[in-house]
Specification:
The protein is an all-alpha fold and 198 residues long. 87% of the residues lie in helices and 0% in strands. The chain contains 10 helices and no strands. The model has no long low-confidence stretch (mean pLDDT 97).
Length: 198
């Protein structure tokens, strides 16, 4: 979480990449700078850097990098409440992830779409996407992704008053979070379980 240092180092790397004509390196630097700005809540700067990275990724034909940019842009748009744009970017990332057979990336896209649909109150679509993410996460052995899916499914069920299902999913998420040592995720589970019991 040393964001000032991260920003400084990414800017140095960007300068060198630009000087030597390394377009891939440039794209990576813009992506990383976008991530730094996203982490500190400077969403306009994050979006600007991510869009520069996206332009380069498209130019050099880096489909994986392009998918990363779309996903990060989706997160930025979701963070500022622009859910239609967030959904649009996650869906673009999902199309690429499926084409290049990136199962982990595909699961992340479904998870992010589930979160967006929950945010706008489209709970059936949220559950549908979260279930798809959960299936993939289990297939590839991604315990962190699995825990996130159960937690978000619990939250979706809580939002529509299906408290028994919410509790069951949140308890599964909590068990996984404890198992992998994710203290932040564990705290989120306790908080949501508290609202369910209340």
């Amino acid at each position: 979480s040393k964001y000032a240092e991260a920003k400084e180092l990414c800017e140095r790397a960007l300068l060198i990449s630009t000087e030597i004509g390394d377009r891939n390196g440039e794209g990576t630097c813009y992506l990383n700078l976008g991530g730094v700005y996203k982490s500190v809540g400077k969403y306009d700067k994050a979006r600007a850097h991510l869009e520069k990275s996206l332009m380069i990724r498209k130019e050099i034909g880096d489909r994986n990098g392009e998918a990363h940019c779309y996903e990060n842009l989706g997160i930025v748009y979701g963070s500022v409440g622009e859910y239609d744009k967030a959904r649009e970017h996650f869906q673009k990332s999902l199309v690429i992830r499926k084409r290049i057979i990136d199962r982990n990336g595909e699961a992340n896209c479904y998870l992010n779409l589930g979160v967006v649909y929950t945010s706008v109150g489209e709970y059936d679509k949220a559950r549908e996407n979260l279930e798809k993410s959960l299936v993939i996460s289990k297939e590839i052995g991604d315990r962190n992704g699995e825990g996130a899916c159960y937690g978000n499914l619990g939250n979706a069920y809580r939002s529509v008053g299906e408290y028994d299902k919410a509790r069951a999913h949140l308890e599964k998420s909590l068990m996984i979070r404890k198992g992998i040592g994710d203290r932040n995720g564990e705290a989120d589970c306790y908080e949501l379980l508290g609202t369910v019991y209340r």
